[in-house]
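hey can u check if this looks right to u? its 366 residues, i copy pasted from the old doc so theres a chance i mangled smth
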Amino acid sequence: MNAKSVRFRRRLILLLIPIGLLLAVALWTWWAEGHPREERRLRVLVHDKLDAWFPQAMAPLDGWHGLIPRIQVVPDGAEPALPRVLLVHGLDEPGDIWDDLIPVLGSAGFEVWEFRYPNDQGVDRSTDLLAAHWPELPSDRPVVLIGHSMGGLIIRDFITRWRSPAGAPAPVEGAPVHGVILVGTPNQGSEWARLRIWLELRDHLAAGPERRFSLFAGLRDGTGEAKIDLRPGSAFLEDLNARPWPESVPVRLIGGLLTEPPASMAASLEAISAEIGSTDLAPDLAEVLEDWWSSLGEGLGDGVVPLDSLRIPGAPPPVLVRASHRGMIARLFPSDPEPEAIPHIVTILKEWSRDEPRARRKAYIP
């Protein structure tokens, strides 16, 4: 075989390798889109096998996961202690989502804890981990749980399956739950979960030095089961949304809305509408375009969770802030103003701190 033929074969092999990889990815994507339950079972199986084969590499023993006290308060006895606050982050969160909220809660006198979990595993597994750690919380006062994004689903799953299941004794004892605040939670799912790979990169590139990095770093957090649970109509969401909520636990929703008509646009539309006039054939142009713009904003929501996905039957309507999914509670730059959801969270906490349990607003029952 001459040198020219050898070079040709090498180039052909180099060309076929990426084509083969692209074909494999395309086939996997096609199969996974049509078989989400089977895909989830396969991902769970892979996760379990990795845990069994490489227990040391897969074990979350770096002190990152679990219940972490962020601000501790010792009551002076002069007045009743405020409820504790437990924060639960969302999918592929690198760890800084609460950095703007925690100091504000501390200044308001609240004791703050954080729950961290392998945030790419199935939501039910993260819930089970919260249940396992729940007894570590002191039970001398009630707890308000605040969840951002997928963290809100973990809270709902924990309340309805572990802490206050309907018609059954609580499988886990401990501190009573005083209320739940869901911030940007996709209660009806989010299509953005399909782009989980980019969130995974953000998670591990932005992780602090306390996170133990290795070739298993991404797999240690799970094998992508969570993104299947987050899809609209997933088996997990169907089961979760069918469970009744305990009447004793109030729930509030906060969501983000990215779009609003600029002032210049609104003024121009009003001028055009006044110039043309309104008839049966030509209705008020400003009103038509404003309705269109509003529908666009509702579908976009905070950029990750549309407004329709925030709602839970029977729950109070969500409080809406003009912000992105993370921007609701976290600054992008230190010079940015305080995230808009933070004052609403503090207001709700203070309201619940004043209320007697019997006077609290009735929570939702699907």
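Residues 263-300 form one domain.
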